[in-house]
Specification:
This protein is mainly α and about 180 residues long. The protein has twelve helices and no strands. The protein has two domains: about 1-65, no CATH class; about 75-170, no CATH class.
């Protein structure tokens, strides 16, 4: 019991230090471990952070929910940008899709992680699959986004050229260098 109390006390001290630093997370990644053990890159702290993340499944939860230090330029941010773009530019996107090109559609392709070389194929796909992507007058921007992503995954030429990894790199403002498969 004494060791448990001691460990809890150290955890609280580390939490205080982490909050004061607010540097994000260390090598173990985001999750509860990053909140408790912070950016201290010592092996012990990163092992404790990774063990905490694994034990509680907090990293997976944080990544999917955008919590536990897993929001800074993560996939959640990229998906929110995609959804916001679809919402704000919904009518223009539909017009561009129907015509098979346009600046709104090309910007949307970039947000979806498409390479420059894949953008013409993306535009053609959205034109050819327009009735599937926008099946009814009451189709919402979120439904449009979901349909477009489904069509990308179902189109072999686009599945490898429009990727979440590129979308994530773009949302982080980093050069897009995703290894070819």
């Amino acid at each position: 019991m004494n060791k448990l109390t001691w460990g809890f006390g150290i955890g609280l001290v580390m939490l205080g230090a982490t909050v004061a630093r607010a540097d994000g997370y260390g090598q173990a990644g985001c999750g509860l471990g990053s909140i408790l053990f912070g950016t201290d890159d010592s092996k012990l702290m990163q092992i404790l952070a990774a063990t905490t993340n694994g034990t509680f499944g907090s990293q997976t939860f944080g990544i999917t929910s955008g919590t536990s230090n897993c929001v800074s330029a993560g996939m959640v941010k990229a998906e929110k940008e995609q959804a916001a773009f679809a919402e704000v530019n919904f009518q223009d996107l539909k017009r561009n899709m129907a015509s098979g090109g346009g600046e709104f559609l090309m910007s949307f392709a970039s947000l979806l992680g498409c390479t420059d070389g894949a953008k013409p194929a993306f535009a053609k796909m959205t034109q050819n699959q327009y009735e599937t992507i926008v099946p009814a007058a009451n189709t919402t921007p979120v439904q449009l986004l979901s349909s477009v992503k489904k069509q990308i995954k179902g189109t072999p030429a686009l599945a490898g050229s429009c990727s979440d990894e590129r979308a994530l790199a773009r949302s982080r403002g980093k050069p897009i260098s995703v290894a070819k498969r």
